[in-house]
Amino acid sequence: MMDSSFEAEFDAYMAGKRQWMKDTYNRVLPSGELIFNRFDKAEYLSMGKDSSVYDTSVVMGDVTVGEHVWIGPYTLLEGINGKLTIGDWVSINAGVMIYTHDTTKKYLSGGIDEVVKGPVTIGDHTVIGTLSTVGCGVTIGDHCVVGAYSMVTGDIPPYSIAAGVPAKIIGRVVEDEGHIRFEYFGGQPKENAI
Fold it and tell me: Is residue 123 part of a domain?
């Protein structure tokens, strides 16, 4: 049973934090995000300088994260069955799931087949779009964009734009005097389509 004075103090504290977040950033967040700082969580997990990870994110196993990495809310970084390495200047958008294992064959075979395991590497200067899944054994190169809702089951070479289920390379990232532009194969979608 919770002490009623503590409960009243906690409710007042949470109401104040919620109002401050709304007034300051026009955001209403899950309660845990109001209590736990995403930069502190990244530091606790020994992630690189200026990286952050939301409290709603699950981080398991051998996960190494570089500098200036944003790991959005409701993500899953699973490094239990192989090392998960994320480079510098990477954006892991909301709802992304990264796995170092795949149990599909095990369950389809009634336990006869083994769990497939493999490390995952995401290179520097890369964006993984909202609600995408990255499967075990995959390497995504530097300067890549993975479109939202994609399922990455194979390697993606550097400077690639990939999207779909399964993800296919649909274009390339071009660096021009420090600026970035996108070139798409077979047509040019809007600049911010990914």
Answer: yes
The 3-state DSSP class for residue 68 equals coil
Does 100 lie in the same domain as 26? no
Q: What is the pLDDT of residues 62-84, one digit of tens each?
A: 999 999 999 999 999 999 999 99
pTM: 0.88
Which helix (H) or strand (E) covers residue 90, if one does?
A: strand 90-92
On whether both 165 and 179 belong to a single domain, the answer is yes
Q: Which of helix, strand or coil describes residue 141?
A: coil
Please check whether residue 52 is in contact with residue 90, taking contact to mean a CB–CB distance below 8 angstroms.
Answer: no
- 76 with 127, same domain: the answer is yes
Token couple for 6: 């503590």
Task: Choose among 58, 33, 53, 34: nearest CA to 43.
Answer: 53
Do 122 and 152 have their domain in common?
A: yes
Cis peptide before 166 (omega within 30 of 0): yes
